[in-house]
């Protein structure tokens, strides 16, 4: 029996060891089909506006193993707790854990000192602490991400991005548009540098292979054979 067990417009259901999984078919202004597993567990198949439903069903069926593996991996993954903006709270920068401390005499908005992440703010004002810390993260991210992108492009002789943007993202570490714009999640700056390089290289490789096809992963592995280990560092 086919694992494609039921179809309703605009959803497709597939069957796996964990039971039935709904894949929501989302029509958008786009050229290619894509599968996305959101952090809340929702699975979407994003298709061009005029794409036939049967084409979406065939695409989902062809990638059912990937969908089921990704769902299991995301369920098993232990993420970091939501950050707190108070004295003594745990925060990460470049993969290292720091303890937040407030200091109103700092010249910069924040800085790392030994095992502490100092923030220029009042200790009893979490909104101010969050704003100053996120501003500092953004400054560090824009500097670090541009440096690493340039280094990877130069090292491997790759096509570079038309531009690099940094913004807060809920479900992705990075993305690449068809116009060559690479967008990186602000919170990527909290990750290990090896993981940062993986995400940037992953998006650079999309400038040659826009989808997640075997050809894309073969291309990625040419430059970063250990990409799976680096990806596993992302938390």
Quickly list its features.
235 residues, alpha/beta, disordered N terminus, four-stranded mixed beta sheet, 6 helices, five-stranded mixed beta sheet, globular
- N/C terminus separation: 37 Å
Structural class: alpha/beta
Number of helices: 6
Strand order of the largest sheet: 1-2-3-5-4
Shape: globular
Mean pLDDT score: 89
State which percent range the strand residues make up.
25-35%
Describe the structure.
By secondary structure, the chain is α/β, with parallel strands linked by helices. Helices cover 35% and strands 27% of the residues. The chain has 6 helices and 12 strands. The strands form 3 sheets. Strands 1-2-3-5-4 form a 5-stranded mixed β-sheet, with helices on one face. The chain has a 4-stranded mixed β-sheet with strand order 6-7-9-8. A hairpin with a 2-residue loop joins strand 1 (4-8) and strand 2. Helix 3 crosses helix 4 (193-205). The longest helix has 31 residues, at 126-156. The model is unreliable at 1-9 (pLDDT under 50).
In short:
The chain has 6 helices and 12 strands. The protein has helices at 53-62, 64-76, 126-156, 193-205, 214-223, 227-232; strands at 4-8, 11-16, 19-28, 34-37, 43-48, 90-93, 96-102, 110-113, 116-119, 163-167, 174-176, 181-185.
């Amino acid at each position: 029996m086919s694992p494609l067990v039921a179809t309703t417009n605009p959803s497709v259901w597939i069957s796996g060891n964990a039971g039935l999984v709904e894949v929501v078919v989302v029509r958008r202004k786009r050229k290619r089909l894509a599968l996305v597993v959101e952090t809340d567990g929702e699975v979407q198949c994003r298709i061009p506006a005029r794409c036939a439903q049967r084409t979406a069903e065939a695409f989902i069926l062809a990638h059912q193993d990937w969908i089921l593996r990704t769902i299991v991996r995301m369920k098993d993954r232990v993420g970091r707790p939501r950050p707190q903006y108070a004295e003594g709270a745990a925060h990460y920068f470049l993969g290292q854990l720091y303890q937040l401390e407030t200091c109103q005499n700092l010249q910069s908005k924040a800085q790392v000192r030994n095992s502490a992440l100092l923030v220029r703010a009042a200790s009893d004002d979490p909104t101010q602490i969050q704003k100053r810390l996120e501003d500092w993260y953004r400054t560090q991210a824009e500097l670090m991400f541009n440096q690493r992108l340039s280094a990877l492009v130069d090292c491997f002789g790759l096509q570079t991005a038309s531009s690099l943007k940094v913004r807060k993202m809920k479900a992705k570490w990075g993305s690449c548009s068809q116009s060559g714009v690479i967008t990186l999640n602000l919170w990527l700056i909290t990750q290990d540098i090896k993981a940062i390089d993986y995400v940037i290289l992953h998006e650079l490789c999309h400038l040659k292979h826009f989808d997640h096809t075997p050809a894309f992963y073969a291309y990625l592995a040419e430059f970063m054979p250990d990409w799976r280990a680096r990806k596993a560092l992302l938390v």
